[in-house]
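Anyone? Bumping this.
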Amino acid sequence: MSVSVHILDTSKSSPSSGRAAVSENRLLAALPAEDLKRLQPHLEPFSLVAGRVVMEEGEPVEWVIFPTSGLISLLVRLSDGRAVEASAIGREGMAGLPAFLGGTLSPLQGISQVKGGAFRLSAARLRRETLPGSALRALVERYTNGLLAAAAQSLACIRFHRVEERCARWLLVTHDSVRENTFELTHEFLANMLGVRRAGVSEAVGALSDRGVIRSVRGHFTIANRAGLEAASCECYRVVRQEMDAVVGLGGGDVGSLLRQRGL
Amino acid sequence: MSVSVHILDTSKSSPSSGRAAVSENRLLAALPAEDLKRLQPHLEPFSLVAGRVVMEEGEPVEWVIFPTSGLISLLVRLSDGRAVEASAIGREGMAGLPAFLGGTLSPLQGISQVKGGAFRLSAARLRRETLPGSALRALVERYTNGLLAAAAQSLACIRFHRVEERCARWLLVTHDSVRENTFELTHEFLANMLGVRRAGVSEAVGALSDRGVIRSVRGHFTIANRAGLEAASCECYRVVRQEMDAVVGLGGGDVGSLLRQRGL
DNA sequence: GACCCTCCGTACGCTACCGGACGCGACGGC
DNA sequence: GCCGTCGCGTCCGGTAGCGTACGGAGGGTC
């Protein structure tokens, strides 16, 4: 069998190499230079450890987190213990929106799913910095809008798309944030995120492996053929990515403006 | 802690009797008297006609709508035409959030699902009235927070709960907004909302009818046993309702503070 | 080297729901 | 009163995913 290569690219500012730049988070990078400069002293480097709970359901939101290379999954949990990921917050986003929206407690559980870097900002400081008319406020508002649209898309996704497609989508999102072709992830973790059986993930992963787009061995995933993986995923990956691109200003568009590209 | 009371009493200001009061929308009712008074001249009565599209996907959001007795369903549509309801906006809410969040175009399609009354406010006026520090801004921010939480709950709901439970939940939400024990609704419409087959709805409705909690004949639904219907629905109804109660100040709590009541 | 634990491949019966279809009764137009 | 349409009850074969379980391979520990 093939041996997975752990580091495929360390050319520039690799996420795992020491200090990450604030601008690696695309939301922060979208701020005007002077705004970011003013914010920077309050942004504290924060390490995302795989599997750790960074935000507890029902607990106060004391920090908002801007991932630079890791990934935070927000989980909804039902009373019987079953759970599913509501949203994955990567380097295009920010975890802890309730702090901005006048809620003090988090309705969701946040788990840092794949190890990586991030910056965090205290909720109090966020409120102080999102002054009326500030670029940060406008940006976070647009991001909220995008997140709502993304949640709606995920709703349709979870209803209509098959495990294999959703699995591919999830791996793509992770790949985007991690920016390494290999990352650590068990089938069981992924199953928890997708809200399906572990065995279901194994089957889906097996099918994707057979097609040669990924490799998966004992807690490690390798993206072997990115384009193929995109083809195997559902449209939701593309739709949400375009929405988020619009939020950070790529294409200069609006969330809604992209809907026509869905092929309707 | 205060207890919320369901008002089924139609003695005065019945939804169907002529002019509805602005305060029948619970979001507007939560505003301080002077704020509401200032807003009132700009609130224009708007009639919700069953089945009409009030907000088109990808079109500019020119109005935000505050239902007083009707119900607006926000639909996500996939490129293959399949659709599912992302959220139902009743009299505890407001449709058109993107106008507030810096988006100009609507990512979702809004359909007024059950006929009823509403007030609408131009998007431009909303932006002018949601001044920093205003009660309206704070309220809409909290509402946004609640809507995100509700969307997350619906995500888990659509993943784990059966058609019959989701069907019961939908009827309860409708009942809350319509405040009449009988309303017009076809199985096919309901199927579109839930994202399932028409036949699937017929089966679920049949089961609920057999238990005597509802009656359904040719385009009409009657709630026969409200408590029984609540027992037949999934926990999501209660969870989302409590979240929305928190938004409008009932119980004075926070969205997250209610999560512990889920029985975890 | 012996052991154990984690992780994963696979298999089996089962259930909810799908897609499609047919027929019947209610209702409205003429 | 007749007929077309609409809404609904029901049925059937098909299937994606479930719950459960078992065994085997990788990797750490002593």
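Late reply, but here is one note on the structure posted above: Chain A is about 40% helix and 20% strand.
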